[in-house]
Amino acid sequence: MNTKKYEEQIRITGLKISYYRRLNKLNQTELAKKVGITPGFLSKLEGGKITNGASLIVYMKLADVLKIGFEKLFKEF
């Protein structure tokens, strides 16, 4: 199994979360509170440091708060 491929996708997804958060003029604390996670956890998500721990529901809530389609977080550019 090629874990490098997955690590890269996790990194890119984190960058997308950060991009859309800034586009919505939210800081990490504000977004984390709206989603129901800690700012530290969000920071790790955005930095691509969470490889085994973010649930699907967290990503769904992020997409909802960021006003984007869920698939945008995972679709390649």
Question: Would you list the SSEs in sequence order as H and E?
Answer: HHHH
Query: What global shape is seen?
Result: globular
Q: What is the terminal separation in angstroms?
A: 23 Å
Helix content: 55-70%
Strand content: under 5%
What does the average pLDDT come to? 92
Number of helices: 4
Rounded radius of gyration (Å) = 12 Å
Please describe the biggest sheet, giving its number of strands, its sense, and whether it closes into a barrel: none
Tell me the number of strands.
0
- Uncertain ranges: none
Structure classification = mainly alpha
3D architecture notes:
The protein has 77 residues and is mostly helical. The chain is built from 4 helices and no strands. The protein has helices at 3-23, 28-35, 39-46, 56-65. Helix 2 packs across helix 3 (39-46). The model has no long low-confidence stretch (mean pLDDT 92).
SSE inventory with pairings:
Blueprint: H1 3-23, H2 28-35, H3 39-46, H4 56-65
Helix pairs in contact: 2-3
